[in-house]
């Protein structure tokens, strides 16, 4: 393996000193790999401004994005927002400001912003469309004072257009690359969100998940992803697949950063009223940051199901995870080894697909009809657009068979109702029963393999960097729990992260 020759040495240096683009000054603060706490300290000590921070990330995007394709569009108003944050910081005390104040964040390109940015799910079909309002999570980010840096690339239509398109590909964004190995899968559909924070093109990011789309790319790019309980974060203004499974969550370099973002975006939204009202009961008084405890593993009961969640092709990876299990024990966790035949973690992909296809058509059509302006107003319009679109060659190569299957559905009929019933039964008799029977605080899984089990029940999960395979591709460790157990999962994930510190910056191997 060798370093990608097109990248300059300065880009690859693990710690780069910020140089202001409009002067010859050199500021003695390393932005690369900096956490939110680091950035806030630098703001407070006047080593750094939000304007300089945004300048740095814009320069990194210019240098790296032509190769990595993690960012689909930058916000032309990002520097204006940064300057506003800097002015506010001059007149307000730092401890009176949100943890995200002045922090640049990338949003997955299916999260609506009512500004100069497009919201297209990576498709030319929605280029130039005008949304009626910011997504619910974006409203909360703006209130927190975050700088909207731009939109992250993604698997087109959240991987719900074609069975053949590669992870991370979209017509608008091209093919996203894994920064740890340019030939490796970046995973999807929140690929750009994970690629960008992994490669230090943004401080933090947001992704979305219907089934694995936060957990998988986070694991493959050595970053932390939180898939929240359904309804904990508003789905309003997010291009939908299914409100039964859709959720929005942070993708960041550290557990603490992800938790700060989570604190900013959770809560009630009248545009997603039923789900957010119910899930708001789970939000702890004082927020989630209070659960960032280095001893958070102490006394936790963690379930281990060897098959299929701890099967490895490479012996060094297997040894790494066995060492991690030992670390969990040393940190005070109680590991509950569960016989494979007693786990009953069955998953019915056919039932999930049956339900999702019908739900996608219903909710996408609703989303498109509510746009102020749009080239397309229905799934049928999108299909027709793709048949004559600028990426017609890619349409022919990758197809749109998922779209066609969804368009062929006719509402929620008997088969869809039966599929939903089946999925509910699998969750009750599978994951939920397992957690309660063994009195578990979390189930532990290597990689993102438990994602579908969590998805069909609306359960939360957190993935943290854990290992690298022989090709340098990261592998995560995932902690999943019952609805509303984010505090326990945060304690577990943070304690594991602090005990292991596996993450390292990417080296752009190919």
Automatic annotation (TrEMBL):
Signal sequence range: 1-23
Presence of the UniProt keyword Signal in the record: yes
Superkingdom per UniProt: Eukaryota
Keyword annotations: Signal
UniProt protein name: Amidase domain-containing protein
UniProt domain Amidase: residue ranges: 53-445
